[in-house]
Amino acid sequence: MVAEQLVALMNITEDEFRQYSSQLLDKLSVKCLAHGNLDRQNAVSYAHTVVAGLGSPAAAAPFPPPQRLHLNPGANYIYRMRGLDHSDTNSAIRGIYQIGQSCFPGKRVARENCSRSLLQRSLQQRLTTLIIKNACFDQLRTKEQLGYIVACRAHTNENVGSFQVIIQSALYNASYLTDRAEAFLTSFGVTLKTMATDTKRFEELKQSLRDELQAKDLSLFAASDKFWGEIASNQYQFSRTSQLISALDTITADSVVQFYERYIDGRSGLRSRFVVELYGLGRKFPAVTSGDITILHEEDLPLFKQNSVYYVHP
Asked: Half-sphere exposure of residue 116, counting CA atoms within 13 Å on the CB side?
């Protein structure tokens, strides 16, 4: 993406820039978020002030829908790339295990709740991360000492959830980091089944997540960030937290194990994985890779994007 932007930047002429600048505000749409010590009248007044300051555009331009790649069940990609800083010896990986949409209530988004099944999946994603993150750091960072940065985390972007493994290392090749991450995730599947039999421990984890969800925002900035996440994804589920809390009681330990086996453990054959491998100075791309993995390089991306399927957003 950055390489494509740099190429486009070098081809922009001064005349093109001036023409674009003159047309930039002719058509646009504005989304305003006002909260805190404001009433509706003041909020609307401030929004009109903003629009007037932009020169009162003659026509509205619709917001382009966000594009998020929809990986099919069983998809298994590795994208290998060089770092933008060619003198950097660090290698890194980001393993993305796609979960899917976290909420899709339908057309009248602002008035409907997320479906119960998607709320449950979102909670299973969060509980899995609570269970695995310390073990991930202990095994890959403390014991194997792969690199200074090691993290397993839940991530949601434009309403599409994923579980991610991130490792940065100056000692090992990116392909080795991927292999070690996979070995850990496979072995942890066995550990998770054992942990699932400890009812008391699982209920403590659920309570920990409940406390996290019920925690008040510490600042207006934190609240704004949460609200903008709903606005940017066109979901407008401002009651999402209360919906999650309500659904938490329905989550069982067995359902979390099933979630892990479906979306993260590679032995199921159903998970959707996309790994980005960044190779540092002096590191070579592997010559041989397992046949069930599709390897991508920079020159493959245009055709890959063209042929890919994307999530439909409301």
From this structure: 6
